[in-house]
Amino acid sequence: MTIVFPMALAESRDLVLPALRHAVSQLDPTTRAQAAYHLGWSDADGRPADGGGGKSLRPALALLSAQATGEPAEVGVPGAVAVELVHNFSLLHDDLMDGDVTRRHRPTVWSLWGAPSAILVGDALMVLAQQVLLDVPGERGRAAAALLANATRRLIRGQVDDVRFEGKPDVSLAQCRDMAAGKTGALMGASTALGAVLAGAPERTVRALQGFGEEVGMAFQLIDDVLGIWGDPEATGKPVLSDLRSRKNSLPVSYVLSRRDHYALELTAWLADRDCADEARLWVIAALVEAAGGRDWAEQEARRRLDRSERLLRAADVTPAVVDELVALGRFIVSRES
Amino acid sequence: MTIVFPMALAESRDLVLPALRHAVSQLDPTTRAQAAYHLGWSDADGRPADGGGGKSLRPALALLSAQATGEPAEVGVPGAVAVELVHNFSLLHDDLMDGDVTRRHRPTVWSLWGAPSAILVGDALMVLAQQVLLDVPGERGRAAAALLANATRRLIRGQVDDVRFEGKPDVSLAQCRDMAAGKTGALMGASTALGAVLAGAPERTVRALQGFGEEVGMAFQLIDDVLGIWGDPEATGKPVLSDLRSRKNSLPVSYVLSRRDHYALELTAWLADRDCADEARLWVIAALVEAAGGRDWAEQEARRRLDRSERLLRAADVTPAVVDELVALGRFIVSRES
């Protein structure tokens, strides 16, 4: 399978960035400056900067979602802006809750300006996302805002579980899957659905597109969890062995725990030992999770999810050329190394 | 002027509480339990409790807002639930940001379950508020959600300013007024407007009702600031001299600073002295603010705002009997001692 860099990503930036900048420009000066920093548009002193922002995967999906129903990409722009705002709301609050001092190789908002800034900028971006959709007149605006609010609630619930599960060995694989579906699947599914909602597509089409995005999101999270243990810090911008260091109940770890064999026992003992933090031990644990098949399972499960996403999409009543683009973007998202 | 305890408050609880409980019941178990504790419905162990919740002023205003347009109170219920949820979202985040360990004589959510809980329960309540309104079909649901999102953004902006201004003597009285208008006026204005929006009232009526609520909110904040310095800790549930202790740039303090006389100089010097925290000094500062007229000004300004709110309302095209109820409720809100 060849991975083609999807043109959709670059095209989407050109279309979405001005609208995103316009939305952010409506914030008060303090919040605007901190949001612009977080989004990679400026440095900590407010000087224009380029880069450091994310890959804008979700906006690209939202535009393709509109195009999948035969409408121009422009119809999906409010959806693209809104999902990017919600994504960044969750990053701002998560970085604070997880105590992460860097993101994408730059200091996080809370580490530069304090916890209240991260809380308030996050709050503002979340409400702004709703406003962008509610500016769309009539039933389409209401339906889009309702779909996004539902996804945002699932996203928050996923984060609640993430906090609740950390360092607990008795969480089932099914619970961890649910958590990932909330944390990543819900917003990815909203991204692939919102364009269609804004285009006034029938419920059945919206649901198929949403299902596609949720499966891609799940595959994305599985690979994210693989990178959280075995990823190259240079590429990911996270510390080496990041997710083991924070004893996150990530999917490869959860898979090994679910086996209930000697690997699982060893891993359970390590999770229970709150004092042990030396790096040599973390490397041993990473090797254990790999030997027990946690890495292979996660990578295979990601491929299965991706295949399922493609089947869902091909069965739906959407423009065939756009299906190919969505499938290519899904593959690209999951093939990433950072 | 006689203050009559408005029946609207008790009636509104009977109508709104079941709907509020229903909305909260849709949250995941962890978030639901912490939200129920925060709302005074249960103790920290999840056992049912009675009391400790707020006065539900905003829901009562939202119901009267619907009735003011000639519709039954029931029409305003989604608005009543939504403003109460947004109010509590802001309390949860504010308590964390301000480091307040108690609210209404009970430990705050963050102090019981940690910062992530307060952040996530707050986030969830804010989105839930949007969902409650977006469940109302058609244009009324969209317009109501848009009005609430706008007020929520102003509320967040007010909190941004509150954080930014703390301990700064060079903030103007106008800036402090703007901050109070955001922190308190915006949501009170949304409360008095949402019922009318849900009733499909014309724009002009909605605006008059919103203006009424914003003025009442401003009066409320002025009295809140008076109580923040001179309030009885037994009644308010806050530490004695609370707002001076945290060097909050509250309205009475800001008024004295704006006079630029010897009182202002003394107060400026105290605000700049970050190390001084002994209580005897706080009593001296409270006496200084009172001697300089900060308390009288705030109380008079609250009355002026209340008078203006009444004039706005009486000029609007709304049911006269409900106008009297709204005016009585406004007076009650501002006459409070806790």
Q: What would your notes on this structure say?
A:
2 copies of one chain form a homodimer. By secondary structure, chain A is mainly α. Helices cover 73% and strands 1% of the residues of chain A. Chain A has a two-stranded antiparallel sheet with strand order 1-2. In chain A, helix 1 crosses helix 4 (77-98). The radius of gyration of chain A is 20 Å and the shape is globular. The model of chain A has no long low-confidence stretch (mean pLDDT 92).
Count every beta strand of chain A, where a strand is a DSSP E run of 2 or more residues.
2
Fraction of residues in H or I helices of chain A: over 70%
Task: List segments of chain A where confidence is low: pLDDT < 50 over at least 5 consecutive residues.
Answer: none
Oligomer: homodimer
Averaging pLDDT over every residue of chain A, what do you get? 92
Rounded radius of gyration of chain A (Å)? 20 Å
Give a quick rundown of the structure.
By secondary structure, chain A is mainly α. The first copy, chain A, has helices spanning 7-25, 29-38, 57-68, 77-98, 109-113, 115-134, 138-165, 173-198, 203-230, 233-236, 242-245, 251-258, 262-272, 279-291, 294-314, 320-335; strands at 102-103, 106-107.
Keywords:
1% strand, mainly alpha, homodimer
